[in-house]
Amino acid sequence: FPDQKHSIDRLMAKDPEFFALCEDYDTCVNALQYWANSKDPEAEIRVNEYRVIARELEEEVVEALMALKPRQLD
After folding, report:
1. Separation CA 59–CA 51 (nearest Å)
2. Over the Cα atoms of the chain, what is R_g?
3. Residue 12 class from Cβ within 10 Å (0-12 exposed, 13-18 middle, 19+ buried)?
4. How far apart are CA 69 and CA 74, in angstroms?
5. What is the pLDDT along the chain (74 residues), one digit of tens a residue?
6. How far, CA to CA in Å, does 10 sit from each of 4, 5, 59, 65, 70?
7. What is the full DSSP assignment across 26-72?
8. pTM, entire model
9. Dihedrals phi, psi of 68, to nearest 5 degrees
10. Looking at residue 28, what is its pLDDT?
11. What is the pLDDT, as a whole number, of residue 69?
12. In the chain, what are the helix, strand and coil shares in percent, each to the nearest 5?
């Protein structure tokens, strides 16, 4: 969400639930990268699982950003 960095940073500072959501997304992306580079036999399964989770978390982030009114961040 590079185009939303400012809004995300400000919302993270004001909303603990959004902050936790962003932490979850970061953790998920890191796990996805780990499994994508793994030679483990179950890597493909894990990659697919983390892709689904990442998509769901992305949707939650987008929904939270769309629900914002500009004055809520000020």
Report:
1. 12
2. 15
3. middle
4. 10
5. 788 888 899 899 999 999 999 999 999 999 999 999 999 999 999 999 999 999 999 999 999 988 876 545 54
6. 10, 9, 19, 11, 11
7. HHHHHHHHHHHT---TTHHHHHHHHHHHHHHHHHHHHHHHHT--HHH
8. 0.84
9. -70, 145
10. 98
11. 60
12. 85, 0, 15
Contact 65, 11 (CB under 8 A): yes
The token pair at 22 is 């962003």
CA dist 43 and 4 (Å) reads 31
User: Could you tell me the two tokens for 27?
Assistant: 């953790």
Q: Which of 57, 59, 61 minimizes the C-alpha distance to 31?
A: 57
